[in-house]
């Protein structure tokens, strides 16, 4: 567990062999008549064959048995996963959730899959256009492993990743994985249909900054040669529904692979923050880690944005986030600490949704404090990490989100109620407010 190895880079062409089988990657071709070590070759396509080179994604896997070696898939219980955006009527209000409750292992044993809960989303899986936001709340591993604290151990066909709090990971479409947890564990999932995350363009920022490609980490090949009759269950989320198939061989039987379609992880501490050093609040797009683009230039199906610890130095400026109505939808979550626009009520493990054109902004306490604050350089968000999934789609909330989770904060609107008019019609001087 402590000696995880990774390849560094974003979207690069990688090669990886499990060191137990040197020379397992075929040389100079993808499909030898017989592969080294008598492995099977299998291609995993993450883009249409004909995509331009810049967006073409695929990997070649050399495995003990091909993925097709399984019994038929059968429908299984959906749990709290849904892609039905018409479960409840649309709600244009500001929504906020208290920390989603993780079941206690002593009361109910829940693994990653049965602990998935869809909170909101939009679009259509079958036409590859849309997204879903899920919360996972679980307390046991999908397989049996040693307890460790506060981490996810993710087995994938490409190798193993240890994902710690304040790290994110991306598992791409069709990649088989299994998640071990070591205690009661909660997390946020952004699922985008049919597109892949990219690093945002940097424009005038230049060649470096924000999330740098070399800080993305890709697992190295690792296989297990285990066969247990009917011993493995592969769960397939297909057209939004869950199906399970039994197989005798571990799905993590890839001895070597090469390609540019891989899972990866990233530590949010590595984000190089860019911000205003003179005056005014810069738009939060400066904090974009990854973007899943729509076909309209500059418009994302989903941006993943973070609010990392940084210096606030802007002069003559109201420094917290401004009041806002956005044609984009903003789902926010908090990994740790507290968020700069809210004095209370927005807690780690909770969330908020300000969907299309829903007004939002600093609560009354925050406005009063920030309007009077002495503008010395100050540390903002030290020890904290808030994030936003921002989407051009108008997000619908599920029945679980509005009702069954029992975490909806019915009093959210009250945080803005104390806002009062400071208007001084006879004096332009802002310091003479009442
Ligand atoms: O707090 C929010 O809702 C997100 C947000 C952050 C910011 O810096 C500017 C505008 C905005 O909506
Ligand atoms: Fe906003």
Automatic annotation (TrEMBL):
One of its GO terms (biological process) is L-tyrosine catabolic process. SUPFAM superfamilies: RmlC-like cupins. The active site is at residue 281. InterPro entries: HgmA_C (IPR046451), HgmA_N (IPR046452), Homogentis_dOase (IPR005708), RmlC-like_jellyroll (IPR014710), RmlC_Cupin_sf (IPR011051). Keywords: Dioxygenase, Iron, Metal-binding, Oxidoreductase, Phenylalanine catabolism, Tyrosine catabolism. The keyword Iron applies. GO terms for cellular component: cytoplasm. It comes from the Eukaryota. Homogentisate binds at residues 339, 360. Residues 270-423 form the Homogentisate 1,2-dioxygenase C-terminal domain. Its EC number is 1.13.11.5. Its cofactor is Fe cation. Fe cation binds at residues 324, 330, 360. Residues 5-268 form the Homogentisate 1,2-dioxygenase N-terminal domain. Pathway: Amino-acid degradation; L-phenylalanine degradation; acetoacetate and fumarate from L-phenylalanine: step 4/6. It is an enzyme of class 1 (oxidoreductase). It catalyses: homogentisate + O2 = 4-maleylacetoacetate + H(+). The keyword Chloroplast does not apply. One of its GO terms (molecular function) is metal ion binding. Catalyzes the conversion of homogentisate to maleylacetoacetate. PANTHER family: HOMOGENTISATE 1,2-DIOXYGENASE. Homohexamer arranged as a dimer of trimers. Belongs to the homogentisate dioxygenase family. This is Homogentisate 1,2-dioxygenase. It comes from Prolemur simus. The gene is HGD.
